[in-house]
Amino acid sequence: MAVVSLSSSSPILSPLLFTNPAASSSSSSHSNLPLFTVTNRPRPPTIVFSYKSRSDLSSEDKKILLERYGLDPHDLLFEPPPPPKSKRTKEVQKRGRGKEFQPPEEPKPPRTTHKLLQVLGGKARRKKLLSPKGMDVRPMMVVVKGAAFDILQAACGCPASLRPGRWLDLYSGTGSVGIEAISRGCSEVHFVEMDPWVVSDVLRPNLECTGFLDVSVIHTVRVENFLERAEQFVGKGGPFDYISVTPPYTEVDYGMLMGQISKSPLIGEDTFVVVEYPSRTNMLDSCGFLVKITERRFGRTHLVIYGPTWAQKNRK
User: Fold this and answer.
1) What Å distances lie between residue 84 and 90, 115, 194, 229, 278, CA to CA?
2) What CA–CA distance (Å, rounded) separates 48 from 263?
3) What gap in Å lies between CA 84 and CA 58, rounded to an integer?
4) Which residues lie closer than 8 Å to 217 by C-beta, 6 or more apart?
5) Which region, left, alpha or beta, applies to residue 130 given φ > 0 means left and ψ of -120 to 50 means alpha?
6) Which residues fall within 8 angstroms of residue 92, CB to CB, at 6 or more apart?
7) Three-state secondary structure along the chain?
8) What is the pTM (predicted TM-score) of this model?
9) 240 with 269: CB under 8 angstroms?
10) Within a 10 A sphere around the Cβ of 253, how many other Cβ atoms?
């Protein structure tokens, strides 16, 4: 919609000097008096232009309308392009309006390994094992691992080696516990580790260098999911003879975890369960129908072993 207002020529007051002949003899102060006269001098028109966009008015009609009132359509119809958006503005709009801009995270350094672990006993004794540098994987301490296997062998009545059977290594990490079990007499070990990099770059190379890959089964899955679908992962092999539980201390609820294990079909009447846990953690005196055989403390690390009642008598 276009509205044009034209102001017509209006009278202009102009001061003139008027001389009165009759008063020429009068005082000079009254001889020349300024009088005002009205003249009709033309005045340029004032144009007030208001424009509102209409969908039914073409660009050509707009141009003709503007030219009719002596306006340059190029100056009024031309819209300058918006200023280019900065990189920061684009990032903010991309991430969402009103959200605080977060710079992209720097890539993490590549994970590396070193050989600080070794097999303590059995046919692979003194074999070096890989472990990740840093604290993302915490293997069982050498003194704790040695004590656990010595207790198991004594409880089974075979001080020199483990009673043959199947071992389940939960939160296996480097696989040092399960590898120790194979080295000391176990016939098969199932490793449960959720980190694909640990499995491909640490666990599998350790099994290959010790020659135990053929008697090992690796499950790359969370322990909780493995326990929920144990029969699907393990098949119809029945309960395990040994189960080791070495989780990261701050990432598990031991009460829920042990309750899930005690109700699992993976535990039988003759199963031994080895659990490593931190101080200030209350562990039950039984795990299902298994009884507590022994409990040890190694600084801030604690070790408890559950087993059948006959093993408790052998232990005494």
Assistant:
1) 10, 55, 47, 56, 58
2) 88
3) 29
4) 188, 189, 190, 191
5) beta
6) 99, 101
7) CEEEEECCCCCEEEEEEEECHHHCCCCHHHCEEEEEEEECCCCCCCEEEEECCCCCCCHHHHHHHHHHCCCCHHHHHCCCCCCCCCHHHHHHHHHCCCCCCCCCCCCCCCCCEEEEEECCCCCCCCCEEEEECCCCCCCCCHHHHHHHHHHHHHHCCCCCCCCCCEEEEECCCCCHHHHHHHHCCCCEEEEECCCHHHHHHHHHHHHHHHCCHHHEEEECCCHHHHHHCHHHHHCCCCCEEEEEECCCHHHCCHHHHHHHHHCCCCEEEEEEEEEEEECCCCCCCEECCEEEEEEEEECCEEEEEEECHHHHHHHC
8) 0.66
9) no
10) 10
CA distance 173 to 180: 13
Q: Are 161 and 170 spatial neighbours (Cβ–Cβ below 8 Å)? A: no
Whole-number pLDDT of residue 204: 97
pLDDT of residue 79: 59
Alpha carbons 295 and 238: distance in angstroms, whole number: 27
Q: How many CA atoms lie within 13 A of 40 on its CB side?
A: 2
The crossing angle, in degrees rounded to 10, of helices 176-183 and 142-155 is 40
Q: Which residues contact 128 (CB under 8 A, 6 or more apart)?
A: 115, 117, 118, 209
Q: What is the pLDDT along the chain (316 residues), one digit of tens a residue?
A: 444 444 444 444 444 444 444 444 444 444 444 444 445 555 555 544 444 545 566 777 777 777 777 777 666 665 566 667 666 666 656 655 555 556 777 777 888 888 889 999 999 999 999 999 875 666 788 899 999 999 999 988 888 889 899 999 999 999 999 999 999 999 999 999 999 999 999 999 999 999 999 999 999 999 999 999 888 877 777 899 999 999 988 889 999 999 999 999 999 999 999 999 998 898 989 998 899 999 999 998 999 999 998 887 666 5
